[in-house]
Amino acid sequence: MSTLRGEWALVLGASSGFGEATALGLAREGMNIAGVHLDRKGTMPNVERIQAEIRQAECQEAFFNVNAADDAKRAEVIGALRDRMGGKPVRALLHSLAFGTLKNFVSEDPAQALTKQQLEMTLDVMANSLVYWVQDLFRKKMLGKGSKVYAMTSAGGARVWPSYGAVSAAKAALESHVRQLAVELAPYGVSVNAIRAGVTDTPSLRKIPGHEEMIKMATERNPFRRLTTPQDVAKAIAAMVGGPDWLTGNVIGVDGGEFII
Fold it and tell me: Is 190 a member of any domain?
């Protein structure tokens, strides 16, 4: 029987991509899933399917259709979860928020260049929000010995792609936040790591201009000659959630060796 059965995982960005796959993967390990997502009516059937699959795994689910980067909504979700979990800590937190502006920093047409507001929004949602969620969970005593925090980064945090500048900056900042949080939370028995997935065909990837070329290049470069899948990442996270606490402060590549080629 899984040692994770009955534990709670909180997934930020639970309705698609890495968040969806991880939520379902952890449910198969017996974990209850709290999911935060932002969906309109047209995509709610997929959310309802995810919830149903979690229940079919005989696990509890609590989903919140709110903006995860909104301070008031974050407080509401944490308050509701604290009551639902009955004082138990969150065993796993996954930060998988992909919402940013894809524009060049510089353009001859000022209307096509990244603005201050867009840059700050991208950094706030995709990087800084990790810190705010961890702070609030910690203050509510919802992170404790054995809790694991994971944040989704990408090779783009260290490499350049047209129009990816704001997201690249956010990924680099996210990795820095992971290192800082890992050191500060170690005395409390909480580990924090970033997961660097390989190029993965997700809804977020398809929003990047030139994503077709990214897919082609990654497939050719990857030693396994295929893209990373959300399920590859979900399996790795599930293994680590039930694994050692001593693994912390890292950027862990889950990419089939893609980054080193």
Answer: yes
Cβ contact 256:223 at 8 Å: yes
Query: pLDDT per position in the chain (261 positions), as tens?
Result: 468 999 999 999 999 999 999 999 999 999 999 999 999 999 999 999 999 999 999 999 999 999 999 999 999 999 999 999 988 899 999 999 988 898 999 999 998 999 999 999 999 999 999 999 999 999 999 999 999 999 999 998 888 888 889 999 999 999 999 999 999 999 999 999 999 999 998 888 888 888 888 889 889 999 999 999 999 999 999 999 999 889 999 999 999 999 998
Asked if residue 261 belongs to a domain, the reply is: no
Long-range contacts of 35-38 (CB under 8 A, 24+ apart): 35/10, 35/11, 35/61, 35/62, 35/63, 35/64, 36/10, 36/11, 36/12, 36/63, 36/64, 36/66, 36/68, 36/77, 37/13, 37/63, 37/64, 37/65, 38/65, 38/66, 38/67, 38/68, 38/99
| HSE (side-chain half, CA atoms, 13 Å) at 100 | 30
Whether 201 is covered by a domain: the verdict is yes
How far apart (Å, rounded) are the C-alpha atoms in residues 130 and 93? 10
- Print the domain residue range for 248: 8-254
Looking at the domain assignment, is residue 45 inside a domain?
yes
Count how many domains the chain has. 1
The CATH number for 164's domain is 3.40.50.720
The rounded distance, in Å, linking the Cα atoms of 25 and 31 is 9
Q: How far apart are CA 191 and CA 175, in angstroms?
A: 14
Instruction: Read off the amino acid at residue 95.
Output: H
